[in-house]
Amino acid sequence: MDASPSDKTSGLAVEDVAEKVLFEGHPALVPSMSALLLSILTVGLYLVFRYFQVKGTSYRITTHRLVLETGILNKKLEQVDLYRVTDYSVERPFGQRLMGTGNLILETVDRTAPRVVIRDLKTDVVSLYEAVRAATERDRIRRGVKLVDYE
């Protein structure tokens, strides 16, 4: 018998188990008004430095994990499973709001990445925040994990 999308697997629909990309990309080249001003004052030289910094950083957020890759010559790959995220926040300073960017900050119980800061996103950060929150809850249910607060 073939499995259809409406079949249940451990209480979740089959389409909920498949990993989907929520966001994939790089930080914005000019994330804030201060970066724009610095670019103008240095006659664009700052943009050369910033270009390599941006191209050396990539973010991939799926319904199961966060993958952050940094570095140009020496690469570092950090992966955090979504069920480990304990707190979420969005930073959108005035200069970033003017440029349409923002930061997503995730507190986790991961030992190697207790705080993940996804900077200078050129997307609707609040919508991404809501999508990550919902995906985290679905991932916890999928894995049968419960978060316990000891405070």
Strand content: 25-35%
Q: Which blocks of ≥5 consecutive residues have pLDDT under 50? A: 1-9
How many beta-strand segments?
9
List the strand order in the largest sheet.
Answer: 3-4-5-6
Folded structure, characterized:
The protein is α+β, with helices and mostly antiparallel strands and 151 residues long. The chain has a single domain (21-143), classed as PH-domain like (Roll), CATH 2.30.29.30. It has helices at residues 14-17, 33-41, 45-55, 94-99, 125-143, and strands spanning 8-9, 12-13, 21-25, 57-62, 65-70, 76-81, 85-91, 102-108, 115-121. The strands form 3 sheets. The protein has a 4-stranded antiparallel sheet. A 3-stranded antiparallel sheet has the order 7-8-9, covered by helices on one side. It has a two-stranded antiparallel sheet with strand order 1-2. Mean pLDDT is 90; it is low at 1-9.
List keywords for this structure.
151 residues, alpha+beta, PH-domain like, four-stranded antiparallel β-sheet, three-stranded antiparallel β-sheet, 5 helices, 9 strands, 32% helix, 32% strand, disordered N terminus
